[in-house]
Specification:
Blueprint (H helix, E strand, L loop, with lengths): L4 E4 L6 E7 L4 E6 L4 E6 L4 E5 L4 E6 L5 E5 L2 E6 L4 E4 L9 E8 L5 E7 L7 E7 L2 E9 L2 E6 L5 E6 L4 E8 L4 E10 L5 E7 L5 E6 L3 E5 L6 E6 L5 E7 L5 E6 L14 E5 L13
Antiparallel strand pairs: 1-24, 2-3, 3-4, 4-5, 6-7, 7-8, 8-9, 10-11, 11-12, 12-13, 14-15, 15-16, 16-17, 18-19, 19-20, 20-21, 22-23, 23-24
Length: about 280
């Protein structure tokens, strides 16, 4: 049993994309539908930045600020000045937006899109480097969680509509993926959403509609542990804190508060294992 605490009480419509920025001693996360980027410091004080469009993710840049994914494509954002600059790529079809994104150990940004109606495979998975943007996977319905193993030779990926976690062979030198295959399947009718990887290789997957974050074995794909969150729409998770042993969990306030009082809040739980550090964008 884990002791889940409220790190920041909120009624975020769709809290998502948590990332711990160690140099800032703060958790950054988004509320997709409210067009907001949040900075919640280690003491729970929260600052909000409205970016003017539904925002699926924000990842830090080595050069400062963030890369964010919105309905307008990829943009850079400087919280210090509120300056937002669109890259002009990719050109997204109407009704398609960015959802989740994460950087590999070399600073490549992997990020995916989805249609707002969540019905048809109109999304894709992209990889952004200083050399440009490339399309890696097509026919995606709900592009979601991403992660890599410690050896950087496997990449994990979730298209929530498939209700499973897939794994690719990964070439860290070139950023190429190959040999996609299923690894773990949701054991019920919930949808796997955001994901984090721990230092022992375990995959922690948030379950939308499932009140939990499940840990999957990276070899067998079997569920080996879980954190019961108490929030129905558990959306994503990341490791952070000074020792990387705190799991931060985002949720969505999709129901009345009386029905789901924790929905929309950011939760925190101390873990027996540390998490893998997530890279910043190198471009």
């Amino acid at each position: 049993m884990y002791n889940v605490e409220v790190f920041f009480r909120s009624r975020a419509r769709v809290g998502e994309g948590p990332v711990w920025v160690a140099s800032d001693k703060a958790l950054w996360w988004v509320d997709i539908r409210s067009c907001e980027l949040h900075r919640t410091d280690e003491h729970g004080a929260d600052a909000v930045y409205n970016v003017g469009a539904p925002v699926g993710f924000a990842v830090p840049r080595d050069a400062g600020g963030f890369i964010i994914g919105t309905t307008d494509g990829l943009c850079s954002f400087d919280p210090g000045t509120n300056a937002l600059a669109a890259f002009g790529l990719p050109t997204l079809a109407p009704g398609v937006r960015f959802n989740d994104g994460k950087c590999d150990a070399r600073g490549r940004l992997w990020c995916g899109t989805m249609p707002d109606d969540e019905k048809n495979p109109e999304g894709a998975l992209y990889c952004l480097t200083p050399e440009g943007l490339s399309t890696k996977v097509t026919d995606v319905t709900i592009s979601n969680g991403l992660g890599w193993n410690a050896g950087n030779d496997q990449m994990y990926y979730i298209d929530s509509a498939l209700r499973r976690v897939d794994v690719f062979d990964y070439n860290i030198n070139t950023g190429e993926i190959a040999n996609r295959r299923p690894l773990a399947h949701a054991a019920d009718v919930t949808y796997p959403d955001g994901m984090a990887v721990d230092a022992e290789g375990g995959l922690w997957v948030a379950h939308w509609g499932g009140f939990r974050v499940s840990r999957y074995d990276p070899i067998t794909g079997k569920e080996t542990d879980r954190v019961d969150t108490g929030a129905r729409y558990t959306s994503s998770c990341c490791f952070g804190g000074e020792d990387m042993r705190t799991m931060f969990i985002t949720t969505a306030g999709q129901k009345d508060e009386a029905d789901d009082p924790l929905g929309g809040s950011v939760l925190a739980v101390r873990m027996p294992v540390a998490g893998m550090k997530v890279g910043a964008y190198a471009g």
